[in-house]
Each structure stands twice: as C-alpha cells, then as structure tokens.
C-alpha cells in the first residue's frame, strides 16, 4: 500500500526525471541547430545558392568574314537555341518528348540527347541550335508546359553566297564528343557551335569569341523564376572579324560559268601578296544547310554522290599536270644549261619518238616538225620535252623538282591540304616496281606531266607565280594578314631575269599567237600568258588544264584551272576558257591598265641581263 | 490577472497564454510557408489553420468545463468510439495514406481522437491503484488497451502515430510508478525488432536483456516471456521490414544515408538541412527564405515547418521557439506533479509525453538526427485534427489544474 506522501514523493522524483529529460533533449537539439546554422552555416548557405542558381551560357556571335571588297562571305543572322536546364533524368526525357514533334527530333536524336545528358548531367542540354521563329513561338506560347526549356537568341551563321564558297569557307556545326576531348577545344562545352571545315575551322580561335554567362534563379522543379543579380554575369565577347583576299564576286562568277555537269576547280592568286582571290571547286553544295545539325539524308547523299561534291578540288585533290608541267622542265633544263629558248633538239617531231622498242606519241600525230624551246612550248610538243627530260637525266630531274617545292604542301590556311606527288628519288621506283621493274624511260613520261606525277591546282599556281614574278613565291593564303603575306617559300627559280622573260614570252605566244594552243581564248585587253594541259588519266577522257598569269609582263593574277575529263578527243579544252574568262573578269574588277597591243612585249623591256648568251647546243 | 483564475476550468492562465502565443506563431509560420513562387497547396492555407484554431478553441472550452469524474466515466465510451473510427478509416479513409475521414466541411484523423481516448482509458485503468507493481502480468491490461489502436494505425499504415501510442503507454506506466526496470523489460522486444537486422548486434542486445533478468530475478514466467518476446521480435524483423510500404523503407534507409538518392527520398532531409543551415544566426528574414520560396523545401507547412523557422528566423529564432516549448512542457509537468487527482495527473503527464515525443521526433527529423516519420510539430505545423487534439488536451489540463 502506498501512502499519500509516498505517492507525492514518487511524483516528485518522476517529475524531476521527466524535467531533466526535457532539458537534456532540448539542449541537444539546440546544439544540433547550432552546429547546422552557426558552424556549418556558410557551407549550407553556399549550397542554398547552388540550389537555386543556374548558369546559362551566352553564345558569342562569331566574327564576320569579309571578302577583299568588303562584301560579306559569312555573317550572323538572328537565330534561336533551344536547350533544357539540368534536372532529374525523367523530367528531361519528358520535356524532350513534348518538344519532339515541333522540333522534329527523331527517336534516334532524342536517345542521343539523353545519352549526352547522362554524360553531363549538370550542363544545359542543347536540343536545337537553329530553331525557327515559329518553333520558338510555339514554346513561348506554352511556357507553363515548358518551364525547364530555355530559348536563347543565338546568332546563326549564314553564307549569303553559300555554294560558290562552300569548299573554302567550310561550315559550322555542333561540337561532338570526340572533338570535346581534343586539346584545341579545351574549355568548350557540349552543344557549342564550332567551325568544322575550311576557314571556319582554320580560324576558329579568331572567329569564335568568348562565351558569356548569366545566372538565373530556379525553383526546385528547375523552372526559371527570375534573372539573378544582373551584375554578376558576364557578357559574351564577340569573335573577331576575318578579312579575306578573296573576291566573292569572282567566286560567284566562276560558279556561274563552270562547264555544266563537269567536275574540277579553279584557283587564282595575287602573285605579289600570295592572297587567294579565287578558289572554286565544282560541283559544290550549300553550306547553309549544314548549320544547326546536318540532316542525315543530306549528308549521306553528299557523301555517296559519285561526283564527290564535298571534295575541295583546289587544295585536297591532285591530278597529273599534263603539259602544264613542261614549263617546269623548261626551267630546269635552262637552269642546268641544257637548253636555251632558241635551242633545237636532235629529233624533230614526227608525231612521236621511239625509245628502245617503245614509241612515245606526241599529241599531234601529224608531227610538229622542227621546233625550238619557245615553239615547243607554244605548240606543246611532247617530242621536244621527251628529249629535254632525256638531256636533264633522271636523277637531276628528281632532285630539281623536289627543290622547286613539288611534293610539299603550299601551306595554305585551309585544313586538309595535300601535297603533290613526284618521286623523290631513284629508290622510290625500286621500292615501287622492284629494281628491274622499271627503266629510265620513266623520265619521258614524267617530262610531259604524266606518270608518277600528280599536282594540285594550288601547287601548279604557286610554280607559275614564281615564273610570273621571278621571286620566291609567297605561300598562298586566304586571310589578309601581314604575317601570312611575308611567308615566302624557301626556293626560287634560279633563272636569270632574261631567261625567265624568254619563258614568259613563250607562254604569251601560247595564248596570243595564231597556232598557240590557247589562241582561241586570248583576251582583247590584256596579255594572258599560260600553258594548256591535257592529262591522260585512267578514268576516261583526258583532264583539261590551264595554268597561267596576266598581264604577262605586269602580272596581277596567277590562275590555275582543271576540268576533269574536260578535253575529250576533238573537242575544245574546257579549262582554258574558264581560266581566261576568270582572269578577264578579275583584271577588269581591279581596273588593271589596259594594254594597247596585247600579246606583244612592252616596248621598254623590263630589266634584262647584261650578257645574253645562249648555251650552244646542237641543232638538228 | 486574478480574474482569470475565476474563469471556471481555467487553472493555469500562463499555460493558456503560451498556448495561444505559440498557435499564433504557428499560423504566422504557416503563412510564410505559403509564400512560394510555384503553385503550392501551402498557399493561403494559414486561413484554414486559423479556422481550425476557432474550432479547437471551442473544444478547449468544452473540455475545460467537463469535470474530471465525468471524463473518467466518459473514457470507455470515447475509447470505444475511437476504435470504431479507426476501423472505419481502414475502409473508407481518404488522403495519401488513407488516414482521414471526410466529415462534412473538414477532415478528421481518427488517430488523433484515438490518442485522446487511449490516454483517458489508460489513466482510468491505472489511477487509484493501491498496490505496488510486482510482475509484468499486471501490465497485460494497459498494454492491451494501447496495443489495439497501435495495431489499427499501423495497418493504415501510420508509423508516426503508432510511435505516439507507444509513447502514451510508456508515459502512463512511468507516471504511475512502474519500476523502470520493468518498463525496460517491457519495451525490450521493440529494441530487438530494431536490432534484428544484424544478428551480431541483436545477439549482444539479447545478452544484455538476459543479464538484466539474471540480476533482477523476476518470476520465471515473466523471464520466459521476455526472452521469447525478444527472440520472436528479432526473428520477425526482416519479415516485418518486407511488409513495410516502400516509402517507409525508403525513409528509414535514407535516414541512414541521405546521399543514397539525393534527387529522390534523400531530397527532404538534404533540403531541410540546407534550409536550416543557410539561416545562419539571424535567418533570411520572415517569409523570404529562398529554399522555401523556390519550393526546395518539401512539406514546408506540415512536417518541415521548423525548417522554415530555421531558414527565415535563424538560430536565434530557433532558440526562441525551443525556449517557448521548454516553458510549455514545464508548465504542464508542474500541473501533473502538483495535482492530487491520480486520474487527472496521469492524463496530464501522458499529454506531456505526447507533446514531448512530437517535439523530439519532429525537430530530430528536421535537423537530420532522427528518421523522417511524419510527425507534426505541436501548435506550429498545419493540421486541424492535431490542433483539435492538442486543444482538447489543453482544456483537460486546465481542468486538472483547476481541480487541485
């Protein structure tokens, strides 16, 4: 039995225990709150900021690209990028579903995007980088359904004259995973647009500019609530403009006159600056269609097209140079003292020449008869140059051709340039055909620009620039840049000016004298000097070449043109009118002084050598 | 203030003042919880809480007018009624866990009514006991009284309320003088249940219980039943775990390691800690906590209301609230101690226990010390039924204080 006092005593004790429990527990809680709010307060405050702040990167407009006359080659037009803010995977996927119809996102594309989201869950996911105004309007009108979707005005690339410049300008597109890993794209984030080819890729660093950033406050659902403290962001820094030496008008002109249905290219350089004024490849495509993601079917169609429209035939293709090569042989022969401009060689042309038991043909089966060097150039006589090669000999020829820079790239400011092909040495033949698998007769073929000899338009243009100016040519380049304009090659023709002028005379005869191989395409205001070429090839009709410069004695432009299979039997050569019209147009546009008597050397000859002596060589 | 003493049934005016002050603060915090930038059910809900406050005030007045003897008579009826409601809610319950009964204009959580009914029933059974407690067998009846509603709410399943029923039982037994060792042995199977996940830990616990039994040498039958109960509980753990609803399992798992799933179940805990932590000393200012405003805080008007307090009023605000709670508990404890009426005193202490348990479980959850069990913070969190229970309880306490 408990007494009243016992009971009160019990209550007091238990009450005390309960009170103590309350005090201890509340103190413990206070300590817990103290640790959270005071000791780790800063850390949690930071986390709270991170929670609610999202960085949205602001695209920088790419620099504009101008041609030599200030015309726009590549510009920016208003466009929109649609992206989804980072968030839970399911939400991103659901948002993609809802956007799919309107933004034309295939299932494949959506899966690709989700994969990217998995790889980079904390970055905004770029869904479409060139959305139309209608697509953006659709999203904006349904804002509550698309709270996680960000629409950013991003300047879009546009090429006002796309197809004529497609191969040199390249195109821009979204950076891919492989490129993201490259050191040159360090600091780039997924979804960013980069130059993929051509000048856009070459001058990416200059054109790109720096992205800016702005901060927005988001709620727990990832929806944007408001702009955060405007001062804390960073505006985008626009890319630098790029000034080209290119003549956009000439590009368009070349595109318009290029022989229909044919393949080929034409390039023109300013020999005094090295600037490329024209670089056109045909057939071409519209780089504007590559912006904002290349449609798969378009890509496949371009890739599988037998005409290879994406191939840049100016700098990434090589052709047997044919007779245009004869000037290389002439220069080497003169330099080595085997030839003078008036040298007749032992065999006259009777439509060909025998070597052992083989008969090497001249293109003119009727035969050219007796010719000196100048006449052989004018008539493009093979027989003469077979003998020239023979005189020079294989080893000196290989050595001198290498010394003239063939076999190296010109160093033009375009990605993927290829070097010409010319055997570097005797060993090359041994490796290729075995020690007994070839004879010295290769000299003959090489001499007329056939055989193991393939050159790019650019390489040939560079050599003719040396002929035109008598100096080490400046490496060709598109950008107007003092450094680039000072980059000369490390070789020169090694001919006296008098000798060089004799060759120029011969080239002028080719175009301006009746009977010359390009006489039909002479200009009536300027002296065009140059050499035709008809290159045999295993694919069908011969390739048609023309390489030259004008005005012959005051060169403003060097031109090289090739039309693949552009010289079928009995037909006119297609490259010659192409080159000739381009030159005429260009000289007109720069208002080159009109010559009174085109085709004739000016009355006051430019500096000639004091001693003019032809080496005595045997006449027939 | 002396006129207040003359109001019939009002025994402790300071407690009344505290109660109203804290309810007012609660409504203010609920108002703040509704100040968010996305559409939320919490917006404008402070009006509903104010309405509930008026209803609760009526219950308070009614309860403070009811003589204790009448309550003692009423206890079995109320208990029976609440068990009926608990069964009913299993069939026609609404709400996310099926724990609400639709009642015309409002909803009622029968679990809250049952808590009051159980307290009264227990107090009636245990008060006026003339004998000292000798064996556990004497506890069969009180345990049974609690076990029925405990099982019924667990079926809903409402883990939080089930815990409160456990608390009510322990509080009642503690207050009527059951020796602590007996209480320990009584609840030891619950620990076995918790520790049964790991056989080694459970084995150690089992040895501790056995050692207690050896030292205190209770009756053989008691010892055997304690051992068996512990054994059974330990063995049942995994089966019981598997029978838990997935969200309940998640809550327990996430408590162990909130980083397991920061976007999913761990979200609540992490966001709550971030909100409180970012409050610092002075807080982000009333109604302007960014975590809450931008809806990072879950359940910000009910279970996590104190995260809003922490974020917006800072550590100083938190301390202020803790002091208010300490005062409230102290007043109630004093009434329980001073009352000469066993029945009234036991009721009061049980309500003290309920308040204290809610406070500890809720705040412990908010700061990440305890698992998320979904118990509201008394007087502060939104919730009509709970406010009604509290006010009815406070009415009774006032009555106890006025019948010395």
In short:
Chain A has 620 residues and is of the alpha+beta class. In chain A, strand 15 and strand 16 (358-361) form a beta hairpin.
Description of the structure:
The complex is a heterodimer of chains A (620) and B (404). Chain A is of the alpha+beta class. Chain A folds into two domains: 192 residues, Alpha-Beta Complex (Penicillin-binding protein 2a (Domain 2)), CATH 3.90.1310; 342 residues, Beta-lactamase, CATH 3.40.710. Helix content of chain A is 36%, strand content 16%. Chain A has 21 helices and 19 strands. In chain A, helix 10 runs antiparallel to helix 21, helix 12 packs across helix 14 and helix 13 packs parallel to helix 20. In chain A, 45% of the residues are buried. The C terminus of chain A is likely disordered. Chain B has one domain. In chain B, helix 4 packs antiparallel against helix 5. Chain B starts with a helix and ends with a helix.
Q: Given the C-alpha coordinates, what overall shape of chain A results?
A: elongated
Q: Which topology of the largest domain in chain A does CATH recognise?
A: Beta-lactamase
Number of helices of chain A: 21
CATH superfamily label of the largest domain in chain A: DD-peptidase/beta-lactamase superfamily
General shape of chain B? globular
CATH class of the largest domain in chain A: Alpha Beta
Largest interface: A-B, 41 and 50 residues
Radius of gyration of chain B: 22 Å
Q: Pairing-aware structural class of the strands and helices of chain B? A: mainly alpha
Strand order, sheet with most strands of chain A: 14-13-19-18-17
Number of domains of chain A: 2
How much helix is in the residues of chain B? Answer: over 70%
**Major beta sheet, strand line-up of chain B:** 1-2
- When the domains of chain B are counted, the total is 1
- Poorly predicted parts of chain B: none
The residue fraction in helices of chain A comes out at 25-40%
